[in-house]
Amino acid sequence: QLQASGGGLVQAGGSLTLSCAPSGTIFSINSMAWYRQAPGKQRELVAAISRYGNTNYGDSVKGRFTISRDNAKNTVYLQMNSLKPEDTAVYYCNVEALNRSNYWGQGTLVTVSS
Q1: What is the distance between the alpha carbons of residues 1 and 24, in angstroms, rounded to a whole number?
Q2: What is the mean pLDDT of the segment spanning 11-30?
Q3: What pLDDT digit, counting tens, does each position of 51-84 carry?
């Protein structure tokens, strides 16, 4: 029910912006987040944002990535700057509703070349 977009190939030092929105209706969204999974590694939290706008980031992306949301559109964004080859991964968006229902996007591939 979540559609992620914005992935692609970028050179190290470049930028990309990911976006994710529900394809259907999700009521009472609470938190929104981005996770990523690199080949051979576990899925990890990249960034999360609460319904009040409070954010938290994984240590490896602090100062480079910014998560934001548009509550009117139920859309979450991830602005990624100063990309590094180690940021290469499939990025997944995640939404949790107030009733604890949890939704995942299909993933969008980000590849950073050195």
Answers
A1: 6
A2: 92
A3: 999 999 999 999 999 999 999 999 999 999 999 9
Rg (CA), the chain: 13
Q: Give exposure, 92-104, as e/b (b: 16+ Cβ within 10 Å).
A: bbbbbeeeeeebe
Nearest-angstrom CA–CA distance, 3 and 107: 8
**Number of other CB atoms surrounding residue 86 within 10 Å:** 11
Residues 6+ apart with CB under 8 A from 108: 4, 5, 6, 7, 18, 90, 91
Number of H helices, E strands in the chain: 0, 11
Say how far apart CA 22 and CA 37 lie, in whole Å.
Answer: 21
The rounded distance, in Å, linking the Cα atoms of 45 and 94 is 10
Residues 17 and 67: their CA atoms lie apart, in Å, by 10
